[in-house]
């Protein structure tokens, strides 16, 4: 039986006789319209961001892909890729790697979390539940400090991430290490219109009471240039997102505590963030006479300067 391109029924695009851009896109589009976001092309999985919650990541799906023998018995899924890596790791006792790539907003961060959740599910019965939860919780914490709203994505990762999971010979997770690289440091002092700096700066102002802000030498958010939109002058967190930011602040603080940060550690984090915020208000000017740079005494509070 021949399945027509554009029917949305081709699970593996490498089986197409004509593998050109048009056929690939036509088939992917047809599948997406049917609500199928995953398609194989050989050993590679193509994922199309659905931008809505789908019921395909429940425990039931984890179990299905954990126990299925052949890939064509089920629809393509990210869990199959995660499952294969875990199975090969256990069978061959050699390291496995999953590379996730795509443009900003494509869904890499969400996909990575789903891959980790499936691997943890697979190694779950033999594993240390507390350790597994801690591995899962590092992602939202890193996102709070390394992600920001951009024009492409409200939760855009502004750093690259290499997550290493370590296992025993029997496939039990015994640890994890995150290597982060190429953090977009310039976002601390500058961001484009409609974009923001790193999430945690906003969480801080929404989450801390006035007296605690003062304890960390922090003023109202309007004082800090970086918390303003460079064009609109709007200061964040504003009324529309203060409740969300407060909730995120509490969540991140709880995660830090669960990950073993002491009270002093957390205070140190807030102190460093406060220092960074003050530093971002320093304004440098060019000295015509000496052709050098000097710090202006006072930062003019007009936005966009
Ligand atoms: N599988 C999915 N199901 C539902 N929504 C998703 C899925 N993947 C991504 N999204 C949505 O798309 C948004 C962007 O995804 P994500 O942050 O993972 O992109 P990204 O590729 O990591 O982007 P960036 O490179 O900017 O960090 C998410 O915040 C989420 O709302």
From TrEMBL:
Coiled coil: none annotated. Residues 8-305 form the Myosin motor domain. GO terms for cellular component: cell projection; myosin complex. The keyword rRNA-binding does not apply. It is found in: Cell projection; Cytoplasm, Cytoskeleton. ATP binds at residues 102-109. It comes from the Eukaryota. One of its GO terms (molecular function) is microfilament motor activity. SUPFAM superfamilies: P-loop containing nucleoside triphosphate hydrolases. InterPro entries: Kinesin_motor_dom_sf, Myosin-III_kinase_activity, Myosin_head_motor_dom-like, P-loop_NTPase. The keyword Nucleus does not apply. Its main location: other. Belongs to the TRAFAC class myosin-kinesin ATPase superfamily. Myosin family. This is Myosin motor domain-containing protein. It comes from Rotaria socialis.
């Amino acid at each position: 039986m021949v399945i027509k391109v554009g029917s949305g029924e081709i699970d593996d695009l490498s089986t197409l006789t004509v593998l050109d851009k048009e056929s690939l896109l036509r088939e992917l589009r047809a599948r997406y319209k049917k609500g199928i976001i995953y398609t194989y092309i050989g050993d590679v999985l193509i994922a199309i961001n659905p931008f809505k919650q789908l019921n395909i990541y429940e425990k039931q799906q984890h179990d299905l892909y954990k126990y299925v023998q052949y890939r064509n018995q089920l629809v393509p899924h990210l869990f199959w890729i995660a499952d294969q890596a875990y199975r090969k790791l256990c069978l061959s006792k050699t390291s496995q790697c999953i590379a996730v790539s795509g443009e900003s907003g494509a869904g890499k961060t969400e996909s990575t979390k789903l891959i980790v959740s499936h691997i943890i599910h697979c190694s779950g019965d033999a594993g240390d539940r507390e350790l597994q939860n801690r591995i899962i919780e590092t992602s939202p914490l890193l996102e709070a400090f390394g992600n920001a709203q951009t024009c492409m994505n409200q939760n855009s990762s502004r750093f690259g991430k290499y997550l290493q999971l370590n296992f025993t010979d029997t496939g039990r997770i015994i640890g994890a290490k995150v290597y982060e690289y190429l953090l977009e440091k310039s976002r601390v002092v500058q961001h484009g219109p409609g974009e923001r700096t790193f999430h945690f700066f906003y969480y801080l102002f929404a989450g801390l009471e006035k007296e605690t802000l003062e304890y960390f030498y922090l003023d109202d958010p309007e004082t800090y240039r970086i918390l303003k939109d460079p064009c609109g002058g709007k200061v964040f967190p504003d009324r529309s997102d203060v409740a969300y930011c407060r909730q995120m602040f509490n969540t991140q603080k709880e995660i830090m505590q669960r990950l073993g940060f002491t009270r002093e550690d957390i205070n140190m984090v807030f102190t460093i963030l406060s220092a960074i915020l003050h530093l971002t208000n320093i304004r440098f000017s060019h000295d015509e006479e000496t052709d050098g740079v000097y710090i202006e005494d006072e930062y003019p509070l007009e936005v966009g300067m």
